[in-house]
Amino acid sequence: MYTCPYVPAQWIAAHGLQPHRLIPAPIEGASTIPRIEGLCPYARAFANDAAAGVEVTGIVLTTACDQMRRVFDLLVHRIETPAFLLNVPSTWQTVAAPRLYLDELKRLGRFLVRLGGREPSKEELARIMLDATASHPRDEDGVHGIPCGCGSGAPVAVVGGPLMQRDRVLFDIVHECGGRIVLDATETGQRSLPAPFDRRRLTDDPLLELAQVYFQIPDVSRRPNGELYRWLAAELPRAGARGVILHHYVWCDKWHAEFERLKEWAHLPMLRLDSEGRGEMDSPRVRNRIHAFVETLR
Amino acid sequence: MSETPRQITLQEWDRQVEFWQAAGVPQPAYGGPLGRHAADGDTRLLQLRYDNSRAALRLWNFLLTEEDRLRAAREAGRKLVGTMKDLGTVPVLAYSLDNLVAFYPDGAWWIPCVMEVNSGLLQIADSLGVDESFCPVRAMLGAFVTGAHFPIPDLLTCSVGATCDDFSAIAQRLSGLGHPILWWEIPHRRIPDPGEEATELPGGFSAPASLVRFVRSELERLRRALEELSGQTLDDDTLRRGIVQANHVRALLARLRDLAFTATPCPMPALEMLIAEMLAIHFCSDQDETIVVLQELLGEVTLRVAAGTGYSPADAARIFWVNPVADLQVMNLLEDCGGRICGTEYLFAHALDPIPETVPPLEALAQMALADPMVGSTTDRATRIVAEIRRFGAEAVIVSRIPGASHCALEGEIIGELVRAECGLPVLEIEVPPLTDALRPTLSTRLQALVETVKNRRNR
């Protein structure tokens, strides 16, 4: 079980284990992490859901977010399911950073073997990666569908961190308010999809190719995070977005701090939605704000 | 030794300084009445109480004149290096070269306290989208925008990776405002796997040797950048001398802490000790003077201990303090409530440990950087805290939350659990914003309750 997009599902599958990307649904009253001031609701919900998970062999977290790094500390004390912390470098321009990520994937592989998985052959990994390329990645990890962009509503991009299950309602509300989401640039959307694998490199060294492709996923956590802006610079016009909704959870510093910069950079109308993760995306207040925002785009 | 130790107000200090000046008592170039800093806007100084030794006066004046030193260094042709989110690594590299001065822009986090939120820095941060949900270090953004609290450095470095999200986000915002940053990676320190080559780090942790090599390669990048900036070569011998000098500072602090945290009565108040410890991170922009300041402070404390003088009450509750406070006055408050400091972990315990001198210097610095309690697990940090509690004989622990800091959401719980389990001590978690005036009754009550608990436990 994992949630961070820097955890390659194919690597878990190649070890004979079933990858499950957890998109948490907050459990009211869950006690693995009681609600704590300053704690990101997504991190808390992930911890609570992961702890409540039955038939979970292992949990993989990453260092891409400091709160999740610290959730790992708590989980190893509170639950018996083995947990693994994957070190995802924040920097990316050096030769050493992707190499560290590759080494971390190898270490993850050893963890998976300890969980009862089998060490994959190159051929097996390559086959799984090819299958993933052929199939729709959304189908296997259960995250949000890619927006179809069809219809006549005002075209809107949604940008930000991951969305919890209940916050998926945001897409419906935008539609009901006369808009349509043409780009899902959240962590649980298109932005975090790995690029297609290169078949030649995949044959030569599939793990290296896997690491290279996943390491290139653009994210707000990268320093500097210019690749995120490069990706948006390509995708926003391609999708025809006329406005941007930035969604983040309270206490998510990285997305929170990015709003003003994104606004200065995008030259598009922007709406910020911060959520406490209690399903308030469906509240009349948020609905009104979205409605007003969409109206300005028409 | 100065007269009988007692805490005095800023006005008392200024009268004393006036007397010394009239009597021709020599003072350092940056010396003088503390009141001038208050007149410049550091109004919180009017609310604090200070140790009455000359050594403490020198410490305060040294701290409060850093900006002057930085501007003088620039005028003298030296290059300035801003070392962000760096608790003691890059400054050691920078101070090895004689034409570089490193400083700690994150230190701006105390400006809202010292200027009692009159600096406008937090409002600037607000306008840049970094509001009160972030750590007070967001004041740094405002300081960069105004350029009024430190000169804009010639080189800006920032460690990222296993660091807090709020600072990483703020630094990225700064970069987005057009300040180029040399980012360097400090990876999460993990426990070596069975059979994996491991390196023992200063402070007792261990890390995979591969991680040490990785950090070393990052420090190589920094070394090259510093060489380019200074126009000098930072070879191993030069760096080794820099490490010896940094270790001199650390050794002085180690002796100071040992005496201040173990002697009864307490020979130096918590506030001065907090400031003294902070010097280890970046030397307050003058490494040589840092040594002089600490030597004087250590001399004063040594004399007080030998004379058996210090602060009352002698039965003060012995408190271990975790995390620095955003409002300096809280250190006074602890003592008002009947406590004293017996051990600290102000986020940079590694910057107090000696840097290894028997390994190649860059390797030594890599080991030291990885020994940072904040880059490892909270459990590691708590383990070190437990060891220090035992060493200094603390009777209770205060975990002081920094508002908005990403590490503070969960660490108190983990540290508290381990301390209770291993030491059986009471643990109090409080949150300290830059100005605690409105919270003072609540904070006092909580601190007093802890002190009472400690004293009741003595009688069991």
Describe the fold and architecture.
The complex is a heterodimer of chains A (298) and B (460). Chain A has 298 residues and is α/β, with parallel strands linked by helices. Chain A has 13 helices and six strands. In chain A, the strands form two sheets. Chain A has a four-stranded parallel sheet with strand order 4-3-5-6, with helices on both faces. In chain A, helix 7 links the parallel strand 3 and strand 4 (179-185). In chain A, 50% of the residues are buried. Chain B contains 18 helices and twelve strands. By secondary structure, chain B is of the alpha/beta class. Chain B has a domain at 66-237: 3-Layer(aba) Sandwich (Rossmann fold). Chain B has a four-stranded parallel sheet with strand order 4-3-5-6. In chain B, strands 10-9-11-12 form a four-stranded parallel sheet. In chain B, strands 1-2 form a two-stranded antiparallel ribbon. Chains A and B meet through helix 3, helix 4, helix 11 and helix 12 of A and strand 5, helix 9, strand 6, helix 10 and helix 17 of B.
